[in-house]
Write a structure and sequence with these properties.
heterodimer; A: 132 residues; alpha/beta; five-stranded parallel beta sheet; B: 486 residues; alpha+beta; Beta-Lactamase; Helix Hairpins; five-stranded antiparallel beta sheet; 15 helices; 17 strands
Chain lengths: 132, 486
């Protein structure tokens, strides 16, 4: 069965790009342009992976992330942050989320993406034998 | 002269000298090279007791050896008069402050010093106060000068002399500012005219050639009932404070630039992502022979090339690193211009645009074009917020006022308002809630322009209730920038 990936991204073109890349590689995609709406979708779909942008209007990606990790039933869903604020794969997560009980996201990917690397990451994080 | 008459005259002279010596209202003594007191007047005897066969240090200081620093010894060596201020003890060993004036006596003119004449007077309370006043005058951490009606410095304290040099008798404008004529906005001139205290902030040049910023207060010095004959100028050095103020201003500007660059990078990354996306979809469409995917890819390319153009244009106008072109401007006139410009646009969407202006607000040194841009950005945002809020009776109000020394422009609306998350972000990045419609540069530009005026922009907002953007310009800072730009 195809793995379910939820893409949360406010830029329509970026969204379409990620969506096309994933669909074309056999993933079942769901999309949301804002974090508020996305939370309801996560509960309903329970995706295998979430692609999350950080800078979004209304609720930011990080506040969505915190909410996700504070929800017992959802906190094990892996998250890959795809954002322009990431520089050379690094992001100072703790300066935004100092709460140590909240684990950092599984992976950060800088925009613009390199398609093959992005797909490798998605494949790795959605692999059935992945533990944790 | 007959011999008898000459002897009579000599006797008279001796008598006069004797009387004079005895009657002097000071303690007078004569000391030889071995510190022996060889003669003293009645006053001296009354005050210090019997001095015969005693040395000066024994009489004055009740010591049995010479003082470690001995004025007499110095006078015997260099023959110069001295005045010292010291404590000595009277015959009952009560110590008191005295001023001792010592002068050399020579039996042969031009010869060695044979004796020293010492006149000792007790420092009374009045003298003490005078002394305290002198210390205060000289040492208070302010520059103090007394100037006469010709603007000549007739007195200057030590702090002043240290900073500006020894300048008695010189014209104050020459000394303070190295000018050849009286300074404009001279507070002393006003004090001469109206006998009142005046204050002003000025910049001068120290004796080392360095610029000094000072806050000066001028007070009238009236002797008798006459007109003001002298003015006291008391100045506090604010050079350091001014420097710090400038550094803060500079830091604020730099921070804005830093955030802008980070924001720009973020914005460009999103556009690049759109361009890559378009390219990807076109090549995928070609591979799959999917016409609609090729079209979508091509649209993506178009949109993101357009975005690049807009961004570059906006950024160029934003990055114009220029100092504000300040000129005296009526704040209300600026607002009225904006209302005229936007009234119709707002009216089409049933939004009422109003001005609430403080009547007769003082003009201020502003860059009218810059403030025009700021108000345009804020008003167009406010109109957008009203459109998003979709309430009935929407209104946007622009107001002006003076508040605690600050000139304030305010743009408020009863539109959609913002929640905390958005409020945090509006100034920090290329942030837009207008989807493809905005570049997120409007408020950044506004903040930059406001900061270049030494002001700040504050926002209050409540989701669903509306927003209030306030631009505050401290008038003192505006004046400082204005003076610098002159």
């Amino acid at each position: 069965m195809a793995k379910k990936v939820l893409i949360i991204e406010d830029e329509p073109d970026v969204m379409e790009y990620l969506n096309t890349v994933l669909e074309n590689n056999g993933y079942r995609t769901y999309t949301s342009t804002d974090a508020e709406n996305a939370f309801a979708m996560v509960k309903e779909i329970v995706p295998d992976l979430i692609c999350l942008d950080i800078m979004m209007p209304r609720e930011s990606g990080l506040s969505f992330y915190k909410r996700l990790k504070e929800t017992k039933t959802l906190k094990n869903i892996p998250v890959v942050v795809v954002s322009g604020v990431i520089q050379q794969g690094e992001f100072d997560f703790r300066s935004f989320v100092p709460d140590e009980t909240i684990a950092p996201p599984e992976r950060y990917i800088e925009k613009p993406i390199v398609v093959d690397d992005f797909l490798d990451t998605v494949a790795e994080l959605t692999a059935s034998d992945r533990t944790g | 002269m007959p011999k008898r008459k000459m002897e009579k005259s000599k006797a008279l002279t001796q008598l006069l000298y004797g009387q004079f010596f005895q009657q002097l209202p000071f303690n007078v003594a004569i000391i030889d090279r071995d510190y022996n007191i060889i003669e003293a007047n009645d006053n001296f005897t009354r005050y210090f007791g019997d001095w015969h066969n005693r040395k000066c240090f024994s009489v004055y200081k009740k010591q049995d050896k010479p003082c470690s620093v001995c004025t007499q010894k110095e006078i015997f060596e260099d023959g110069r008069t001295r005045v010292v201020d010291t404590v000595v003890a009277d015959k009952d060993s009560r110590w008191a402050h005295h001023v001792i004036q010592s002068a050399p006596l020579r039996l042969t003119p031009g010869g060695p010093v044979d004796y020293i004449l010492e006149i000792t007077s007790v420092v009374t309370d009045t003298n003490q106060w005078q002394q305290e006043y002198n210390v205060l005058f000289d040492r208070v951490p302010c520059y103090i000068t007394v100037i006469d009606e010709e603007y000549r410095i007739v007195r200057a304290n030590e702090s002043f002399r240290e900073r500006f040099g020894d300048v008695l008798g010189q014209y104050c404008y020459k000394v303070y500012k190295r000018r050849d004529k009286q300074c404009p906005r001279c507070p002393a001139a006003r004090t001469f005219k109206d006998s009142k205290i005046h204050q002003s902030e000025q910049s001068g040049i120290g004796k080392d050639g360095k610029k000094i910023d000072y806050a000066v207060m001028t007070s009238p010095l009236v002797r008798g009932e006459e007109r003001v004959a002298h003015v006291i100028e008391i100045s506090t050095d604010v050079t350091q404070i001014k420097k710090l103020e400038k550094e803060v201003l500079e830091a604020e500007r730099l921070a804005a630039v830093g955030q802008t660059v980070a924001g720009l990078a973020h914005s460009i990354k999103n556009i690049l992502m759109g361009l890559e996306g378009g390219k990807y979809m076109i090549s995928l469409g070609l591979k799959k022979d999917d016409r609609s995917m090729i079209d979508r890819g091509s649209d993506m390319l178009d949109r993101n090339f357009d975005k690049t153009t807009t961004l570059v244009k906006d950024f160029l106008s934003f990055s114009k690193g220029r100092l504000p072109q300040l000129k005296m401007t009526d704040p209300n006139a600026l607002v009225e211009e904006i209302v005229d410009l936007y009234k119709d646009i707002a009216g089409v969407s049933n939004i009422e645009l109003k001005a609430r202006l403080k009547p007769k607000i003082s003009p201020a040194p502003l860059d009218p074009d810059a403030i025009h841009t700021c108000l345009t950005n804020l008003v167009s945002n406010a109109i957008d917020a009203c459109l998003m809020g979709q309430q009935k009776g929407s209104e946007v109000v622009i107001s002006t006022r003076d508040e605690k020394g600050k000139l304030v422009f305010e743009v408020s609306d009863n539109g959609s308002g913002m929640d905390y998350e958005i409020k945090k972000k509006i100034f920090t990045t290329f942030f837009t809630t207008k989807g493809g419609g905005g570049t997120g540069l409007g408020l950044l530009t506004t903040r930059k322009l406001v900061q270049e005026h030494g002001g700040k922009i504050v926002v209050e907002s409540q989701k669903g209730k509306g927003s209030r953007f306030r631009m505050e310009f401290p008038r003192k800072r505006l004046e400082m920038l204005y003076r610098e730009s002159e």
